[in-house]
User: Which sequence fits this backbone?
């Protein structure tokens, strides 16, 4: 390699390192990085993938630890789960990146030709989807499980996530082009008559696999507040009624039971009871602030597989 070519290679590597630092260390979104460097978001996604492929970014999953196996087994037995995946704590990798990487790896393993997938939205799933490898799955489909039109950050909390998932696996995409929460039942009934919404919701009744996030109902932590569908005051009222968390927009109590409150009747998305018939329901959630909500979802049997971090797993067992 001559000196001039070596300089070019080093310059390109330095550029990739800069992109990786912004995403993995500074916790900037891909859209923010794209704006900073004058790139498109898909280009940033491809550069981050190149960072992993070339070894600039290395995410190591340290399985086989007796302690982690014991912790996962305890959760699995305590809540009759099909699978529990615990992500060890890393000093140099943000928890959202580590959990997302492990969730993406799990997803790549369970995908198969003809699979019918449903996906909700949220930051946990965002980091999972954007670390999925490009893979062509024959006759696969991805259905948006909950409305997201009007979300403050559509890349995290709307149709963009399901669309990106479908692109990664080269599958069909069925969006729910409506808000997740409407003002009253009359508005909901009108929207449910729309052909596109009807088709997406019909497809949620025959899914093989679903990916969901789990959120606390605390107004300062609620994904529905972050997305702009609830005000902090409304979230506080729902919390006061006994809700500890929500999944696919639906609030549930400390036993993981769907609550018969006005709010839940105004959600547009997969029917809560239909959701529970999906054979594999993967919950991807991290953070001790969510421990109470995750615990309630496990008590209620809302998910069959849990992917979380080590610190949160310990906190769940203390609930």
Assistant:
């Amino acid at each position: 390699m001559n000196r001039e070519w070596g300089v070019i290679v080093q310059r390109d590597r330095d550029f990739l390192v800069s992109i990786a630092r912004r995403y993995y260390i500074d916790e900037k979104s891909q859209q923010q990085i794209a704006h900073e460097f004058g790139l498109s978001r898909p280009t940033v996604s491809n550069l981050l993938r190149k960072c992993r492929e070339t070894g600039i970014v290395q995410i190591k999953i340290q399985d086989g630890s007796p302690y982690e196996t014991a912790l996962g087994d305890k959760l699995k037995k305590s809540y009759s789960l099909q699978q529990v995946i615990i992500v060890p704590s890393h000093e140099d990798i943000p928890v959202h990146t580590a959990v997302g990487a492990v969730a993406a790896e799990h997803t790549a393993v369970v995908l198969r030709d003809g699979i019918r997938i449903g996906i909700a939205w949220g930051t946990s799933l965002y980091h999972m989807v954007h670390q999925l490898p490009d893979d062509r799955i024959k006759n696969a489909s991805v259905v948006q499980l909950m409305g997201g039109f009007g979300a403050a950050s559509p890349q995290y909390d709307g149709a963009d996530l399901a669309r990106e998932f479908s692109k990664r696996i080269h599958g069909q995409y069925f969006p729910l082009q409506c808000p997740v929460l409407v003002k009253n039942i009359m508005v909901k009934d009108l929207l449910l008559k729309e052909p596109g919404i009807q088709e997406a919701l019909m497809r949620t009744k025959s899914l093989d696999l679903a990916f969901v996030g789990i959120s606390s109902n605390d107004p300062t932590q609620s994904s529905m507040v972050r997305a702009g569908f609830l005000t902090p005051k409304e979230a506080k009222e729902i919390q006061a009624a006994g809700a500890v968390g929500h999944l696919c927009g639906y609030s549930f109590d400390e036993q993981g039971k769907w609550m018969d409150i006005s709010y839940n009747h105004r959600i547009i998305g997969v029917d809560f009871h239909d959701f529970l018939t999906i054979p594999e329901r993967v919950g991807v959630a991290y953070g001790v602030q969510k421990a109470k909500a995750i615990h309630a979802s496990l008590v209620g049997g809302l998910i069959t597989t849990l992917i979380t971090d080590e610190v949160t797993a310990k906190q769940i067992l203390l609930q």
